[in-house]
Design a protein that fits this description.
The structure is a homotrimer. The first copy, chain A, is of the alpha/beta class and about 250 residues long. Chain A has a single domain (about 5-180, about 195-200, about 210-250), classed as 2-enoyl-CoA Hydratase, Chain A, domain 1. The first copy, chain A, is built from eleven helices and nine strands. Chain A has helices spanning about 30-45, 70-75, 80-90, 110, 140-150, 150-160, 165-175, 185-195, 200-210, 215-230, 235-250; strands at about 5-10, 15-20, 50-55, 95-100, 105, 120, 125-130, 165, 180. A six-stranded mixed sheet of chain A has the order 1-2-3-4-6-9, sandwiched between helices. In chain A, strands 5-7-8 form a three-stranded mixed sheet. In chain A, helix 1 (about 30-45) links the parallel strand 2 (about 15-20) and strand 3. In chain A, helix 1 (about 30-45) runs parallel beside helix 3 and helix 5 (about 140-150) crosses helix 10 (about 215-230). The radius of gyration of chain A is 17 Å and the shape is globular. Chains in contact: A-B, A-C, B-C. At the A-B interface, helix 5, helix 8 and helix 9 of A face helix 5, helix 6, helix 10 and helix 11 of B.
């Protein structure tokens, strides 16, 4: 299997369905996959026939997040890295972006949801942002977007302890719109419904909704990215990664 | 009935009660009504004996929103229009403004609540902001105030699908303070209680509470107003309006 | 008892436990106590062995807030006052700050929680910010932080009516993380857990979480402080204080 099949694209009506397709690694994201996602979003932006994009994962998880070996072997180098390019594309995507989550959504698997316009999640979803536990810092604008959504106390608890949370808590937080048995079906139906709406009104409304903090998010993403890059090279992170891999190996 | 009776004013103790009084049209708002509301708020600002204002609707609804025929026949022309004048007055009103809602609160009927200091709603309340479905965009600063209140995912869902929501969901969102059987009575009681508080402390506190985003709201209201004006002239909106009127006629 | 014992310090593992220790006055805060707290936070900042700080109250309450006689006899004089120094220290403290609340948390007893990273509260906790009822205005950045947390309508209700609220409502608001039977034990356990996390990641993450509004909070604290100082000298406040003391004396 080549990298180019790791993001499956399927056009259904006016909705582009993107499926993270590396199930044997729980859809852990590689630089190549970020680049493919970026390119898929660019394509969807340019194509008038595409009214919205749904993103989901194949197999048992949404995504295990950034591949941990990639973090160690090919760490992202700031704003020119594929992951940063993907985050920029996510942040600037002008059409409705809808996530359909099931199973684990780790790290960027959770933080990317803060950029989605609607999120549907299965009851077995498990969200986590264990950046601090790995000696890292929050990314993807989550250090601004998450406390704004859930308040400072809740955001601190989640980030500082690294604990995961389930679908019901995510719903109470406002991170997701609805718990659904068949998340892809629900997401595709809502996407189709939004696809019937006047398209200029839809994109202008999304732009207005984001305008309140669009620039602030771009700025914090740069600050996070710089701290993240420095953290990845730190002894703290190296020790934390070793602990993580030992724990994983012990299972 | 002349336009000047369409906003009923009644001073009860230190509280000015404003009643939208066009029940045969479900209190749909006309340019004349906006101007009257603006003038009532200006009067209340200047009158030291008035400590707070309660706004409600007569008949079966709070308000059906902006009259749809007015949108087509006399579209608001940006910042000099009566509706923009009313929104400015609402945004800058220095004393407590309390809404008592029952039945339908459509469009500006819901977005004006984001500027009220307290909101009481009857169980039969039905809130909706169907701007996108009409080919339009959110107004009255709602594109900033609503996502800040409920999070981006929930705000996107409400705006992009155009779906309505009831009193319980509005309470969970924090859009309203309380569900009440007799909203006007409850609102007048709370207004009287606040009227007993030290008045300078009350207005200074309201000003501080708004100061965090007062300027940002003013700016987004201008951006929304411009996009709204352009949208009203678009083919998209014309088609959406026709669909809306056909659906209404078919009932 | 000298003032210097009114803030008890106890180092347990990597956590500094600060106990407000003036139980006979329900831990009402004096200028000397603010100065001690400021100094304790400065010490904790400088000491690498201290990873987090827990703050609690002795006796039956968290704190009755600023001593009301101090307000009248030695009113805070703006930015050079001990209370403003404490608020600055609170706002800038770089390590996790965890509050363990039980009983009454009045005025600054509630507003300081908005600066804490995690808050645990006993079921008997009673939060109140009766600034307006005393002819004063919100302080400690609460006029920005509280509406951002709970929405404008809820914040207006709490501030304008002065009503108190309990632990369950505080939890629903996101003001506290958890209701606990033994708040100090729970707070110390979570502090110890965070103390095991990579320390640079912890402080960088806290800094990122605060960065979104750090400057805005500093600015609003100055505006509040100025309005607060003017209010304290007003006839409105003097009358409100007399009423308050009469009511208290009548009990």
């Amino acid at each position: 299997m080549t990298d180019s099949l790791m993001i499956e694209r399927s056009l259904q009506g006016s909705t582009l369905l993107l499926t993270l397709n590396r199930p044997e690694k729980k859809n852990a994201l590689t630089p190549a996959m970020y680049s493919e996602l970026t390119s898929a979003l660019a394509g969807a932006t340019a194509d008038f026939a595409i009214r919205s994009v749904v993103i989901t994962g194949s197999g048992s998880a949404f995504t295990a997040g950034n591949d941990i070996f990639d973090f160690m072997n090919t760490p992202p180098t700031g704003e020119s890295s594929p992951v940063f390019g993907f985050l920029q594309a996510l942040h600037n995507f002008p059409k409705p972006l809808i996530a359909a989550v099931h199973g684990n959504a780790v790290g960027i698997g959770t933080t990317m949801l803060l950029h989605c316009d609607l999120v549907f999640a299965a009851l077995d979803s498990k969200f986590s942002m264990p950046f601090v536990s790995l000696g890292l810092v929050p990314e993807a604008g989550s250090s601004l977007l998450f406390p704004r959504l859930v308040g400072h106390a809740k955001a601190s608890e989640i980030f500082l302890t690294g604990r995961s949370f389930g679908a019901q808590e995510a719903l109470d937080m406002g991170l997701i719109n609805q718990i659904s048995d068949d998340v892809v079906k629900t997401a595709m139906e809502v996407a189709a419904m939004i696809g019937e709406q006047p398209p200029t009104a839809v994109t202008n409304t999304k732009a207005l909704l984001k305008s309140g903090h669009h620039q602030a998010v771009a700025m914090v993403m740069e600050a996070e990215s710089e701290l993240f890059r420095i953290a990845l090279e730190s002894d703290e992170a190296k020790i934390a990664f070793m602990k993580f891999l030992e724990k994983k190996g012990a299972k």
